[in-house]
Amino acid sequence: MTRRRVVVAGGATAVTATAVALGAGLASAQGAPEGMGAHGPGSRPSGTASGTPSGTPEACYALTTETTEGPYYIDADRIRQDVTEDEAGIPLTLRLKVIDAETCEPVRNAAVDIWHCSALGIYSGYEDMGNGGGGTPPSGEPTDVPTGPPPTGGPGGPGGHQEPTDDERYLRGTWKTDRHGHVTFRTVFPGWYRGRCVHIHVKVHVDGTWTDAGYEGGHTCHTGQLFFDEESVLLSAETAPYSANTATRTTLDEDTIYPDNGAEGGLLRLRYKKRDIGRGVLAELTMGVAPD
């Protein structure tokens, strides 16, 4: 799949992401105990070497599971690391490492797109859709039928792409991986909307060219989603502005998109102060992709 158009910087200023202040008492995501290395459970096939294989056809790292793009993708037009645009929410530093799943070599100079909803479940570019594409956020008892025209296949799930309804682009951005395959974004902890658990969408593009205008050509080698464990979501729900989100929340176990395979399926390793998640969250994941 080739990129639909050239990514244009549009005058956006690249802001270097700053790490969340972390210290003693940091909490780690379920399934990813604190102190674990980059290759967590569900990522590296059992019985394989930890380094780059030599003379073996076996992959050294499991491919990160691909999932649906969803209806709210807008071909990236914001070249930046800080995608916040003054959106309210818990500060989130997202650190990804992109590697070739066959060789474990870092994937350098790839273009990584992320996009996600706000604390109240709204996607930029689709504000008229309301919370999760189903009209305005519900109040009182939830109903089974959305009040607005939902995207084909349900909110955030499979189905056709929805054309943007406005020019807002908060909580969306593209940045390149460095020579070690690392890319860092500064954003806010996502909220939720009816029918989906808390998640971030991600795409990885390779074989293109970075120019003064942005990223040109190439193809998409990975389309997926990043997920948050239930404990962190429950803590965020007690914090403003998430506490004002009245949409019925889908848990990680209930979600129909999450592949239920831990880090391999996009489950982030999270670190934060359990008694004060509002101070910020650090989320990390190593993603194994097939760049060819």
TrEMBL record:
Top-level lineage group: Bacteria
Upper taxonomic lineage: Bacteria, Bacillati, Actinomycetota, Actinomycetes, Kitasatosporales
Biased composition (Polar residues): 45-55
Residue stretches making up the Intradiol ring-cleavage dioxygenases domain: 70-128
Gene Ontology molecular function: ferric iron binding; oxidoreductase activity, acting on single donors with incorporation of molecular oxygen, incorporation of two atoms of oxygen
Signal peptide: 1-29
This protein's name: Intradiol ring-cleavage dioxygenases domain-containing protein
Keywords: Signal
PROSITE patterns for this protein: TAT
InterPro entries per the UniProt record, alphabetical: Intradiol_dOase_C, Intradiol_dOase_core, TAT_signal
Entry-linked Pfam families: Dioxygenase_C
Region entry Disordered, spans: 32-59, 130-168
